[in-house]
Amino acid sequence: MSLPSISRMRFIRPIRPIRPIRPIRPIRPIRPILPMRALALGAAMTAALALAAAPDPNQILQHADQARGGGLPGLTWELRIQNSGARSNDDDPPMRLRIQAADDASLAETLEPLRSKGSRMLQVDRNMWLTKPGLKKPVPISPRQRLSGQAAIGDIAATNYAREYRATLLREEPVNGEPCYVLQLAANTRQATYDRLLYWVSTSRGTAVQAEFQALSGKKLKSAQFEYGNRIESQGRSIPFISRMVISDALTDARSILEYGRIVVKAVPATTFDVSNLE
Amino acid sequence: MRFRLPLLLLLAGAAAGASEPEPVPPFRVSGNAELWAYGAVTDRTTASPLNPANRVAQLPDPQWTGEARINLRVSRDGQELVLRPRALVQDNPGNGPGTRQAYLSQAFVRLRPADSLTLTAGRDLLTWGPASFRSPSNPLYFDAGRTEPMRDVPGVDLVRLGWTRGPLTLTVDRVLDAQRLEPAAPPPPMSLARLDLRGRDRLLGLVLATPVGGAPFYGAFAQATLGQAWLAYAEFGSGRRPAALTVSPGAQSAQSTQGIQGAPFTVQTPSPRRETTLLGASYTLVNGQTAGLEWLRDGHGWTARQEAQYFTRAGQIADAYRAAPDAPMAGQQLAGLGQGLGQAPALLGQDYLSLLWQSNLQESGHYWRLVWTGNLQDRGSQVLAYGELSLATRFTVFAALSRNLGGARTEAGCLFGTSLTLGVKCFVF
């Protein structure tokens, strides 16, 4: 595993400064009478240096979450979803949603297509309900219920991977020439949308570049690429925000393109996420 | 009573205006409008013990319906106005005059005086709970209409205060009018309190309503999300209903060739307190289709013996009517059957099983649903198949086929055998 440079670590400073890597000082000559102790000491020092320098994968994750809505007081945005490939009709109009999201909850209202207009989907933790103009009361649905095409309900809500997954830094590798940390995420809660993920986070921008969603067995289910053409104000800073997410099925050519716009950072009252108000 | 809904809306609107503090964002208007046109044919049960010559239930066959369903929402920070007007035109060729109706299915104002408080006034649906087949935890909407795809379920006129704090939500309602609900619902006014306790993957609701038939109604519901695909849930209710119908003792043997001597049925108002329980589970497949199973035990229903007595008694009256439809007793016989039909329990039996299989609710191009519901006592059952298919951006065709199995002396088959509805929906905006 290669160690990250100091310059690459700048993006996570707002969360917690990370100690820069100290240059490795030459080890004093080993006295011949204690060879084993010296070897052990050297190994321990090397390990300590490596530990001190290695970025905290959870901090990387927290930072990447912000650009996908995690850790913010509340968000409202519009989402456009276009499906293509297997199991979708090319004539299908795109789906347009208005999302209100807070820490652990989201409310998605369908604006288009016309035949689904007025549908509302509420998610609070892992409790989910759906209602439509024709339905008499909200229907509870399970997390497996897909939103549209390849997009799961968990894909449209604010992303809180740092809370839902245990991260391990595997390695660094470039994606389209951009150096990235490769994190392995394992669900540490049943609330997680996916069991396991591989998550590529740009070392310079601190935003997720791509993801590979896996089953518990490690089998690849689908993958996603992210773009960050939006910017939002958070705690007095302008930070990048997701503008496009492309989710591709691992086995077929089915693909969903999610485009994010009209983003407003503003606290959403808890009553918005009350199922009693989901008429 | 008629002035209550406008008055509620006016008061709430005035409160909204009065509470306007600073310049706020403009109102956001959203909504949709649908026009429905459909026709239905019904294969009436010729040997019906409750509906001889269709003189009691007067089931239309065929029936042509046109509907306009408009849903409007005007919202701004913490304020919301919801209007759901409906217009209905129905023609029943050869079966009496049609229907012309225009009404507000829902119309309410919702304010948020504080982040944790909501105040609702107007006509709103007071439904809750996870069950599809019936909702035992709800004293007003025991049948929330989930099994009837075309039915519009109207709201009740109410004032509601809701308080949310973390996982707790408390709502207190005062129901002032429920004139658009079915007669089986207890008459308002009534007060209702509901406490919801939400966990990360479960929800528990406790309901108290009083007075319902002069006695409190207790209800509860719970749902749990198990893994990614399973939902398990339950609903419970304990209370009285407006009426309990029984076969009059002694009337069983008091039959003559002219008809029935004495009142065929006895009505007790309100009914004794009974408990109703529903247990259910659903599983979502990888493709988003859902399969569900619900079992209902309704203490307000009859035992197999009581149900058999009911049909025997009704059958005797119906046979007598058929034998002499112009006899002087005919009017009394039809009135007796009307009472038997109209005041029978919401569900005749006590044990029911309902199986549901439906397509992904999120698919906008098509939707289908298959439902089998069985009365485990009389062995009668109903199969409902419903489907919608989008033909163009603004047009969807739909079909509903209902097939009742079990014969004329079962709950499912006592009125009709098969019903087919075909129609089209137009999405205006």
Descriptive report:
The complex is a heterodimer of chains A (279) and B (429). Chain A has 279 residues and is mainly beta. Helix content of chain A is 13%, strand content 41%. Chain A has four helices and 17 strands. Chain A has helices spanning 35-53, 57-66, 153-156, 161-164, and strands at 75-84, 95-101, 105-112, 120-124, 127-131, 139-141, 146-148, 151-152, 165-175, 178-187, 196-202, 208-214, 220-227, 230-234, 237-241, 244-249, 255-265. In chain A, the strands form three sheets. In chain A, strands 6-5-4-3-2-1-17-16-13-12-11-10-9 form a 13-stranded antiparallel β-sheet. Chain A has a two-stranded antiparallel sheet with strand order 7-8. A two-stranded antiparallel sheet of chain A has the order 14-15. The longest helix of chain A has 19 residues, at 35-53. Chain A is globular, with a radius of gyration of 22 Å. With 429 residues, chain B is mainly beta. In chain B, helix 2 (304-323) packs antiparallel against helix 3 (330-342). The model of chain B is unreliable at 253-259 (pLDDT under 50). The interface between A and B is large, with 44 and 71 residues.
